[in-house]
Design a protein that fits this description.
The complex is a heterodimer. By secondary structure, chain A is of the alpha/beta class. In chain A, 38% of the residues lie in helices and 14% in strands. In chain A, the strands form five sheets. A six-stranded mixed beta barrel of chain A has the order 5-8-9-10-12-11. In chain A, strands 15-16-17-14-18 form a five-stranded parallel sheet, sandwiched between helices. In chain A, helix 18 runs parallel beside helix 20 and helix 23 packs across helix 24. Chain B is built from 20 helices and seven strands. The chains are: A alpha/beta, B alpha/beta. Chains A and B meet through strand 13, helix 13, helix 16, helix 23 and helix 25 of A and helix 3, helix 6, helix 7, helix 9 and helix 10 of B. Chain B: Keywords: ATP-binding, DNA replication, DNA-binding, Nucleotide-binding, Nucleus. Chain B: Belongs to the ORC4 family.
Chain lengths: 836, 411
């Protein structure tokens, strides 16, 4: 199975006469997005009309186009230096049609310009004539393909992949003609340079001096204009009428929010065969257009991203707008009028909402992209490559594509999962948006283990060492395989440090500091069996799923014999194996094979193994320990200062914890395990306890509020108790009378004989003695046996199966002092103390 | 006729109450110190604030761990419809990692109306679970994993727990893992790396105290005044009940009951028996009902076993006991037969049975588990030669012999 795609990759693409160069044969197919099941928004389909065909709206001349190819992402290799492939002649014509603007030659210069951020608006380089000519040429060579760009300067605006833009909705709408970049004041109806303030309710702009009473500077927090204020109190308000002869001009933002304009997110930009510029856009939608309608918590400037895509001609683009994540949005105070909040994705098929993924996921995507960049730049067979990539893109882009996705089983599609688009809330829950977090709640969120810390205090030395190791392995021209073994007790930041180092290095790769490499992360405990690691590695390298034997064979070929598997042939490969000790099999072959590869001359493999035990290499066969044990790095348990720093660095800016409380928690944890996770959990639990207390007391009307909302020693103490103390003493205190007698008899027996272990027969006799001498009714042997088994179930005592009856062996599971402590002052049975 | 009808209705009502754990545990759920409100606070925190948590519910069997959890989950599902999905696993069924992951995938598929494939491998299922966790987190949906008999999941490599708890360390996931176990040392069973990822919330379920028991009794047994029951009947029923509960003989009964086992479950079993004894013609609960119930619930199975034994079987038991008194620790059928012959020769109390008859009696005793083989070795040996042990102590044997009517008096 794995062989076929490999061959396809290696074979020269030219041999294919009908090469799948054009990913989308025509517009119509690209546009053929399946109709939504319930066409709640039927007008959406009208968006898909071909704007380009409409020549009536030369608002701006499309001819004033200037292109900049920066980081020719999707630019096929052949376009860059056509001479190398057989299709040179054809390439030449392509370049001819590009005429003066040959991307290859101009690139360095243009990049510089782009860096200087000078928006050059040069004359018509690509004039209509050229376009015309090109059309003819297209007829000659219909196989020519689109050229993809990352950044395009179109009619004075610089558009990049990933930007958001306004898109015109109607072709002839006169209201689209004027495009005021600056909003007018609602009072004086002039724009001007004076500082304006925005009402948080009606989004109208006001000059500071026009407000009554005038303001000097923009106030902190929300501000609501006098008109809205009055409207809220129920008064009738007359909006100030505009001066005669002057129509109130609506800004693009207002038009968008009243759905007279559209907004889209640019996914990719390309030049069509006829020279027109197109982009693939992902629509934004305003809350009113969703199935749920505008919800109470929706902000005025809120948009939803949809999973509805369309190809749009650049001509219909109005200008930039900015859809921001909540974090950026909250900071964007002075960015202008075209700022929107976009937190959710809206599924047009299922009418459901989903949060947009957080930033670190985006980073992953970006990494994938950059990988592709390098590949397409270096690989001679890039034609097929690109085709494949587009395939992938299409799949990614159209999760709700024409394939009846929901009919496939969700959990087994060879690594791809279907039907996930079904998951999503029909309505965004109110509590998520409207809830103002208290300091305690914020503290709880930052103390979550899942929250990625911004910095890692106390691990600088180790991180430097890892960085040096990886750089040393990767940067040299001759990448020699190496192996690093990292050990340390759980919760000391081993995996996190390695991942942080890899993140830093990735940004260095992006900056061009180091050669690109591929990074594979596996976890021994997440594999079904140790052998499966071959499969995982092979899949990460090539993207194909094969059986582990086959994968082992192929990997062996790659690493030992130097045969190349996939596209990333020349790259060094860094393999991170978490929980390495799980890979130890009986004959230890898996570990041996993996650690043997780095020693091979051409492998370019770097292995980083992480495990808890310090002496893992020594426990293994000598041939393995000699390969693994050379370079080691120890992550010692955190001491209390480090733990304190970790906690307080997370809690920076939140006034929820007393300083001693943090110190207490960190000292306690440092004394026991030095596990940072444990320290964080204790603090979080303490905050939770405090929060619980406050919320409880506030729900009761008669009690006064529970003082200051900071976590003190008492809460931390309670959290530590809960976490570290076994609950057996409480159970002993509250268990039934006979169970208590039973336990006391066990202790008594232990004192008498000095042996830890006793049999049920002896114990029953002791119990009957105790009962007889203290006036308690002896319950009978069978009841006693049942009681013993119940105690054994809770593991207060250890006992054999009850079927052994009088031969059953019994043993206390806790020290006898605990029993004495728990039962000493028992009110019901005061005589118990005699025997303890 | 009317009265009987009323009594029948009352019986049905009380029985259905006893069988409904959520009814039993509602009176305990109000106070802030109750496990209900603590558990609800932790879980609803996870739902509303996207905190990942892992909780252990510990306590002896029959204290209502699962019942309280179900109450909390029911209320949460009502409060946040469509936002909480519950995955239930049981250690007795799914302690194998592979099968547990498959079950998780299946339940997730059912919950979200996706198609499930039985053929999926371990990797597929674990990937599916992780991506489901992510997607549900993005959609503000919480997945609650309930692991009953948690201690059985903490065996072997603990792959399932590791991958669950590790998946919860990513910011996008929103999940709660609730382990339910009667073993108090359940968290000590976790491997170090798993324990480090566990967030160690612990809730302890204790058997009810005396006052709570009293409250519970009246909560279960008293009839509602304003309902389909006639007012007079309900009043009279409650008055009679009140009188019974106040009676010191009744408190004695409850004390003996809770003296041996004070869990809620035990009490419910007792009450069910008592209620079933209720005389429909009379129409009200009496103290007699409770007395019969306590007798039927405090059985002594070993003694009852002895009462059913034949004389020959008793002889054999007595012989074995005599051997043990002679401090002969290891004996088999042959040595028992020798002793039997000795007794018979000296006392002549009853007929002498042939050896094969004795062997039948001996085998019968083995089946009733009054005696057993000392070890499992030598199973190929025939019964006569394997060493055996008496499973009943002399202290039990004596009253047992006394209570057996067919037993000859002297020995």
């Amino acid at each position: 199975m794995g062989r076929t795609p490999k061959k396809a990759l290696q074979s020269p693409p030219k041999s294919n006469p009908v090469s799948p160069l054009d990913p989308k044969p025509s517009h119509s197919s690209a546009v053929s997005i399946p109709p939504t099941p319930e066409t709640l928004a039927p007008r959406r389909s009208s968006r898909r009309i071909n704007f380009g065909s409409n020549q009536n709206t030369p608002l701006r001349s499309p001819d004033h186009v200037k292109e900049i190819v920066i980081d020719a992402v999707k630019t096929p290799k052949s376009a860059k230096n056509g001479g190398r492939s057989k299709r040179g002649a054809e390439k030449g014509s392509v370049e001819g049609s590009f005429s003066p603007v040959s991307p290859d030659l101009r690139e360095p210069k243009k990049r510089k310009k782009a860096n200087e951020k000078t928006t050059v608006k040069t004359g018509s380089r690509v004039s209509r004539n050229v376009r015309f000519k090109k059309k003819i040429k297209n007829a000659d060579a219909p196989k020519r393909r689109r050229v993809y760009y990352k950044k395009v300067v179109y009619d004075g605006g610089e558009f990049e992949v990933g930007d958001d833009v306004y898109v015109k909705r109607r072709e002839n709408a006169s209201s689209d003609d004027e495009d005021p970049e600056v909003e007018e004041c609602r009072v004086c109806f002039k724009s001007g340079k004076a500082l304006m303030i925005e009402c948080d309710d009606c989004l109208g702009g006001f000059h500071l001096k026009c407000i009554k009473p005038p303001m000097k500077e923009v106030p902190e927090g929300d501000w609501i204009c006098g008109l809205c204020d009055a409207r809220k109190t129920g008064k009738k308000v007359e909006l100030p009428a505009p001066p005669k002869g002057k129509k109130r001009i609506r800004t693009a933002r207002e038009k968008l929010l009243s759905s007279d304009l559209w907004a889209a997110h640019i996914e990719s930009i390309w030049k069509e065969l006829d020279g027109s510029y197109w982009f693939r856009g992902c629509w934004y939608i305003i809350p009113e257009e969703t199935a749920a309608g505008r919800q109470l918590h929706n902000l005025k400037r809120e948009l939803y991203r949809t999973n509805d895509f369309a190809d749009i001609e650049m001509e219909s683009v109005l200008r930039h707008c900015y859809a921001m994540k909540p974090k950026e949005f909250s900071k964007a105070d002075t960015e202008g009028d075209d700022v929107f909040l976009c937190e959710y994705e809206y599924d047009i098929r299922w009418h459901s909402f989903k949060r947009l993924a957080e930033i670190d996921n985006e980073e992953d995507d970006r990494e994938a992209d950059t990988d592709e960049d390098w590949n397409s730049c270096e690989d001679p067979g890039s034609d097929t490559e690109e085709y494949l990539e587009h395939e992938v893109k299409n799949v990614k882009g159209l999760p709700a594509g024409p394939s009846p996705a929901h009919e496939l089983p969700a959990n087994s599609r060879k690594g791809r999962i279907f039907g996930l688009q079904k998951i999503g809330t029909k309505k965004i829950p109110e509590h998520v948006r409207c809830h103002k977090q208290t300091a305690l709640e914020r503290a709880k969120t930052t103390l979550l283990l899942a929250t990625l810390p911004k910095s890692m205090p106390g691990r600088n030395k180790e991180m430097e060492e890892i960085t040096a190791f990886i750089k040393g392995a990767v940067c040299e021209d001759q990448c020699l395989g190496r192996c690093l073994y990292i050990h340390g007790v759980p919760g000391t930041g081993k995996t996190m440090s390695v991942l942080a180092v890899m993140r830093n290095l990735r940004s260095e790769v992006d900056a061009g500091g180091i050669k690109p490499y591929c990074f594979i992360e596996t976890n021994g405990l997440k594999l079904a069996s140790p052998e499966n690691i071959y499969r995982v590695i092979y899949e990460a390298l090539s993207g194909h799923r094969v059986s582990w034997k086959k994968a082992f064979h192929l990997l062996n070929e790659r690493f030992s014999d130097g045969n190349k598997v996939g596209k990333e042939d020349n790259q060094p490969c860094i393999l991170l194996i978490d929980e390495l000790d799980l890979l130890v099999t009986r004959n230890q072959s898996v570990l041996y094979n993996i650690l043997d590869w780095p020693t091979k001359p051409n492998s370019k493999l770097v292995v980083i193994g992480i495990a808890n035990t310090m002496d893992l290499p020594e426990k293994l066969l000598p041939r393995i320990s000699s390969r693994m044990g050379i370079q080691r790095l120890c992550f010692g348990p955190y001491n209390y200062q480090q733990l304190q720093e970790i906690i307080s660095s997370r809690l920076k800016g939140i006034d929820a914890f007393e300083k001693q409380a943090i110190e207490f928690a960190s000292r306690k944890v440092a004394a026991i395990s030095g596990d940072a996770r444990r320290a964080l959990e204790i603090c979080r639990r303490a905050a939770e306890l405090k929060d619980y207390r406050i919320k409880r007391s506030s729900s009761l009307p008669n009690s006064a509020s529970a003082g200051k909302a900071t976590v003190g020693m008492a809460e931390v103490e309670a959290a530590i108790q809960e976490m570290f103390q076994a609950p057996h003493i409480q159970i002993m205190k509250s268990c039934s009378k006979l169970s208590q007698i039973f336990l006391v008899a066990m202790v008594h027996e232990l004192y008498k004989t000095g042996m830890g272990e006793t049999t049920f027969e002896k114990l029953a006799i002791t119990v009957s003695c105790l009962c007889a001498s203290n006036g308690e009714a002896f319950p009978g042997w069978d009841t006693l046996l049942r009681i013993g088994c119940k105690l054994g179930e809770c593991r207060i005592i250890l006992c054999e199966a009850g079927g052994r009856h009088r031969l059953q062996k019994l043993q206390l599971n806790f020290p006898s002092d605990d029993v004495a402590f728990a039962l000493k002052d028992n009110k019901e049975l005061p005589w118990l103390a005699k025997y303890l | 006729m009317e009265g009987e009808n009323q009594a029948e209705k009352a019986l049905i009502l009380i029985r259905s109450r006893i069988c409904n754990p959520s009814y039993i545990f509602t009176p305990f759920s109000d106070s802030p110190e109750s496990n209900y409100s603590k558990l609800k606070f932790i879980i609803s925190n996870s739902v509303t604030e996207a905190c990942n948590n892992s909780i252990l519910l510990l306590g002896p069997r029959g204290c209502g761990k699962i019942a309280v959890l179900n109450l909390v989950l029911r209320d949460l599902l009502a409060e946040h419809p469509d936002m909480v999905s519950v995955i239930r696993l049981n250690g007795l069924l799914h302690s194998d990692d592979n099968c547990a992951l498959k079950e998780i995938a299946r339940q997730l598929c059912v919950e979200h109306q996706l198609l499930f494939s039985k053929m999926a491998s371990f990797d597929d299922n674990s990937q599916f679970m992780i991506s489901m966790l992510r997607e549900c987190g993005l959609a503000h949906k919480t997945i609650i994993f309930v692991l009953d008999e948690f201690d059985l999941f903490a065996q072997g490599k603990q792959r399932l727990l590791y991958s669950l708890l590790d998946a919860m360390q990513s910011i996008t996931s929103q999940a709660v893992v609730i382990g339910v176990s009667c073993r108090l040392d359940a968290d000590q069973l976790l491997e170090k790396r798993v324990r480090s990822r566990f967030s160690h919330r612990k809730l302890l379920f204790l058997p009810p105290s005396k006052e709570e028991l009293q409250r519970l009794l009246e909560h279960i047994l008293s009839l509602p005044i304003d309902s389909s029951f006639s007012h007079d009947y309900a009043m009279e029923f409650n008055a009679k009940l009140h009188k019974i509960v106040g009676d010191c003989r009744f408190t004695e009964i409850v004390d003996t009951l809770s003296g041996s086992d004070s869990t809620v479950n035990h009490l419910l079993k007792f009450l069910f028996r008592a209620v079933c004894c209720m005389d429909l013609d009379f129409g009200f609960l009496t103290l007699e009902n409770f007395k019969t119930a306590i007798l039927s619930i405090q059985r002594q199975p070993k003694l009852e076993c002895l009462q059913d034994c034949s004389v020959l079987e008793l002889y054999i038991l007595v012989c074995m006991k005599r051997l043990e008194d002679k401090e002969q620790n290891s004996y088999n059928f042959n040595s028992v037969m020798k002793e039997y012959k000795g007794i018979h020769d000296s006392y002549q109390t009853s007929d002498y049975y042939a050896r094969n008859v004795c062997l039948r009696a001996f085998e019968h005793l083995l089946q009733r588990e009054l005696i057993c083989f000392t070890d499992n070795r030598g199973q190929s040996q025939s019964v006569e030669f394997r060493p055996v042990k008496l499973l009943i102590s002399s202290h039990e044997l004596y009253p047992g012999l006394k209570s057996n009517r067919s037993c000859p008096l002297a020995y």
